[in-house]
Design goal:
Helix content is 24%, strand content 30%. By secondary structure, the protein is α+β, with helices and mostly antiparallel strands. The protein folds into two domains: 11-19 and 30-62 and 78-192, OB fold (Dihydrolipoamide Acetyltransferase, E2P) (Beta Barrel), CATH 2.40.50; 197-256. The strands form two sheets. It has a five-stranded mixed β-barrel with strand order 2-3-4-6-5. The chain has a four-stranded mixed sheet with strand order 10-8-9-11. Strand 2 and strand 3 form a beta hairpin. The radius of gyration is 18 Å and the shape is elongated. The relative contact order is 0.15.
């Protein structure tokens, strides 16, 4: 008998749980407004038609009253789901199991905000459909970008589309924090952005003084040097400083390919 769609989603959720146990062993889930953060507070969100918004627009939204309580549910402004075209600057694994993304307004890396992909095991009480969305998103992210480091931010410089509800987090100097504390939390889906790969190569080179900008094939774990056959041409990959690629465990291609 073929498995049902719900059964396949459950298997995906289980797979993420197993993967998460490798990525983040013995991590504790968060505490501050955690039920609201992971959609387990019983407050419905409007996910049917995400509103298109820019990072710059979201950074200027007024911070709603009542969101600074430790157990505060989602405010009305946090029930709307947005689709955001952005540049992914970098990411890391947080202690609460979230994959923490720093995203920026395309063309202005000083204007940042945060997006978080939580560990589905920390979404107890959330509607299953959202836990499954997060599970698929987390699997897809790790497949595309590799296992996130817990000790440092991994540079990405990739155009990306982020979909998820707005959330106004506590203001405690998080990396990438928007002035109003707004985040996309949890991220329900990810997609490619609209910036050409060449601009990402240029952007990556600006952060690699004295180093070479390589193209990392995130599927094979191999990186390619400028001028080589597969530089910037594999279906999955990103530009990275060579020293960072080596530190993250990627291997140089043989024979200059």
């Amino acid at each position: 008998m073929m498995p049902t769609t719900r059964g396949l989603f459950s298997l995906a959720l289980l797979a993420v749980g197993l993967l998460a146990s490798l990525i983040a062993p013995a991590q504790a889930c968060g505490r501050e407004r955690w039920p609201a953060k992971v959609l387990a507070d019983g407050v419905a969100i409007d996910a049917a038609q995400p509103a298109v918004a820019a990072v710059d627009k979201l950074r200027t939204l007024p911070r709603p009253p009542g969101v600074d309580g430790f157990n505060a549910p989602r405010a009305p402004a946090e029930r709307r789901v947005y689709r955001v075209q952005a540049e992914l600057l970098g990411f890391k694994l947080e202690k609460d199991g979230d994959i923490h993304l720093v995203i920026a307004q395309p063309g202005n890396r000083a204007h940042t905000m945060i997006a978080e992909i939580p560990d589905p095991r920390c979404m107890s009480g959330a509607p299953p459909v959202y836990a499954e969305d997060v599970a698929r998103t987390r699997l897809a992210f790790v497949k595309a970008y590799g296992i996130p480091p817990a000790t440092h931010f991994r540079i990405a410089y990739r155009a990306i589309t982020v979909v998820g509800p707005a959330f106004f987090d506590f203001l405690h100097r998080q990396d990438g924090l928007a002035p109003n504390g707004i985040e996309i939390h949890p991220v329900l889906s990810l997609g490619p952005g609209i910036a050409p790969a060449a601009s990402s190569a240029t952007a990556a080179s600006s952060s690699c003084p004295g180093d070479v900008t390589v193209w990392v094939n995130t599927r094979s774990g191999i990186y390619h040097l400028p001028g080589s056959r597969w530089y910037g041409r594999t279906r999955e990959g990103r530009f990275l400083c060579e020293k960072q690629a080596d530190a993250d465990g990627y291997r140089a291609a043989r024979n200059g390919e």
